[in-house]
Write a structure and sequence with these properties.
single chain, Dna Ligase, domain 1, 3 domains, two-stranded antiparallel sheet, 13 helices, elongated
């Protein structure tokens, strides 16, 4: 009959053997996983099979980044890619843009390219109402070229032809939008992207509509730029357009503050009485008619409003605190609106 002590010893030996077996198995698993991970990250060059371009959208999550890479056949080991990014704490550091991956990249090389932001095209947003100089600075801030080079391309290298008329420069014709711009493009090539988009957004019947309004297409674009800088709410833009057309028809000065601001090198929050005396063709307080060129680059809503103004008897408007405008037919009504909204 076995002693109690012998039974305990056998049980202990069994437990120890099981523990050793578990440790060995875990070690083998960890070792195998480590070898797999190392090979997946640094050794495997299977993908992409050929040079491949991938667009990473602005605001894309890391999951969406992985999906985009897989969809284009860039990633051989998605799990290893995720783990590597998490271990390096860079899963939130991928830069948006368009990337060109040479054939046969490691997971490590792919991740580094994305984190360093080695795009061959970058996303750039041009807001509505920006001037050519503001757009030049925006493009320069994205490392697409020197601001002065864009200034020259926009303002001193000629214009574009619209409905048979050639504009003096490109102010007003650099369409505001979000673009994916190749980093190697010259200022002239970038300019062409923006101007080509303007021509796409211009109403197809622009010439006929301008003629019906008694204007040329470039003149309507000037009006669109005024609307862009004066209006905040899209639903007000056709009404602002009607005020401008009504004043032009009656020979009244437009009295648009934004046109005076265009003469300044830097933004002015307030237009003073002294500013109203500036002798400039852009001073629509002193000169009747339109400014000689657009004063900004209008978006789609302002272009549409300029070509399709509302039919009203309004001659005045004033901005309200809520971003809309109050319109009036008479100076008396306008003065009451000013007293109400500009206290």
């Amino acid at each position: 009959m076995a002693s109690p002590q012998g039974s305990v010893n056998r049980a202990a030996r069994a437990l120890l053997g099981a523990a050793v077996a578990i440790v060995v198995c875990v070690g083998l698993i960890v070792g195998a996983a480590s070898m797999w991970f190392r090979d997946a990250v640094y050794g495997d060059h299977a993908k992409p099979e050929h040079q491949t371009d991938v667009i990473i959208a602005r605001g894309a999550t890391f999951t969406e980044v992985v999906a985009a890479l897989q969809d284009k056949g860039v990633l051989q080991h998605a799990l290893a890619f995720r783990l590597l990014a998490r271990l390096r704490h860079v899963d939130a550091d991928v830069k948006a843009g368009e990337y060109r991956f040479p054939a046969h990249q490691t997971t490590d090389e792919i991740l580094k390219r994305l984190v360093r932001g080695e795009q061959f095209a970058v996303w750039v947003t041009i807001p509505e109402g920006y001037t050519a100089r503001e757009i030049a600075r925006t493009l320069a801030s994205r490392a697409l070229g020197d601001a002065s080079a864009f200034d020259h391309a926009f303002l001193h290298a000629g214009g574009t032809t619209v409905a048979g008329a050639t504009t003096p420069n490109l102010e007003g014709y650099l369409f505001p939008s979000t673009y994916l711009i190749p980093t190697g493009d010259s200022p002239g090539q970038v300019t062409k992207i923006l101007v080509d988009q303007f021509h796409k957004e211009l109403p197809r019947d622009a010439a006929a509509r301008a003629k019906a309004l008694g204007r040329t297409v470039p003149e309507v674009v000037v009006i669109a730029s005024l609307i862009e800088r004066e209006g905040k709410a899209d639903e007000d833009r056709p009404l602002i357009a009607s005020v401008i057309y009504n004043r032009l028809r009656l020979g009244m000065p437009l009295e648009v503050d934004a046109s005076i601001e265009y003469t300044f090198a830097e933004h002015h929050d307030v237009i003073t009485k002294r500013d109203l005396e500036i002798d400039s063709p852009y001073n629509t307080y002193r000169h009747t008619g339109l400014p000689p060129t657009p004063i900004a680059n209008p978006g789609k809503a302002s272009l549409d409003a300029a070509f399709r103004p509302a039919t009203t008897d309004y001659l005045y408007y004033v901005a309200k605190p809520d971003g809309h405008s109050a319109f009036a037919k008479t100076l008396q009504e306008h003065n009451a609106n000013v007293a109400r909204y500009l206290k």
